[in-house]
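Before relying on records like the one below, remember that each one covers exactly one chain. Contacts with other chains, cofactors or solvent are not represented anywhere in the record.
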Amino acid sequence: MIFLAEQLKTQPDRQPLVLLGSEVPFPFTSQPSRIMVPGIPDGVIGSMPLLEDWGIASRLTSLQGYAGCYQGYITELARHWLDALDTQQRGEVEIFSCGPHPMLEAVARLARDYELPCQVSLEEYMACAVRGCAGCVVQVQTENGPAMKRVCVDGPVFEAGAVFG
């Protein structure tokens, strides 16, 4: 996701918002954000320093009581933000997500609720990582019905609706 944010920051017509969640300490020291984001609850100011330096808004979520973090799931914080947008603003939103399967499923549901495009990066076990074993297959909905796709070759990024229909 950091690579994606780095690419988006070069596009002046895009204003990314990165939501990061963790139930273990973040691998960086969070800092209070200087970038205001309408729809984010008061007190939710924890951000990732690298993204702040790039001018990209970020907010942190956790159930562990970390200072400045939203106390809940990423999808709950995203709903606060999405509900604060008007119809035109919401129409410009695209969701990109990576993380554990249950979270990706929740993000896909959120995208479906708001009728937003969403791509998910799957984390599957890749036994060989050279396309040979098919140990990383996932079922994906296609125009011709369900199909098995290899995450190592056909992904790891898929349209959320195809995976979590």
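The mean pLDDT is 93.
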